[in-house]
User: Fold this.
Amino acid sequence: MKARPPRNYLDPGAFNAGTFLSRQGVDAIGTLRSAELLRKLDSPPPQFRYRLARWRGTLLRRVDSLFAEQPERAAILRAMLLGDRSFVDSDTATVFQRTGAYHVQVVAGLHVAALGYFVFWAGRRLRIPRLAQALVTLAVLLAYARIVYPYCARSWWARFSSPQV
Assistant:
């Protein structure tokens, strides 16, 4: 095989294949005479963020499977727990808005605080030293924030930037 860098057509406004492939991690392209010559290399272990993204997908599928008979409830739970409002129909969202309960559908600082309190409380019940409790709580909150990050960035930063009373 003869490897070469991806090339672009010089037409203005044409698709930039070189940039696209570079963003995908492809540095060279080539052709083989036979697929039998192709051997897959061992891939590196997935990074932590990919594991969290897969875990998020698993949690979303789990909610869907638990409430397969009630897709409206599954949609609301996806929104409440993981910040995914993509399956909440506009009529349901309007009902929540009119009743003043729309905040229940979004991952807010209250959700983050409740999770943090629960993890810290569980650490106290298990008699874990306070420093370890704090570190475990922080780790859980960081993982949760990373799982739902696109949907809770504002609430995450608001929780830590608000003055403590």
User: Anything to note?
Assistant: The radius of gyration is 23 Å.
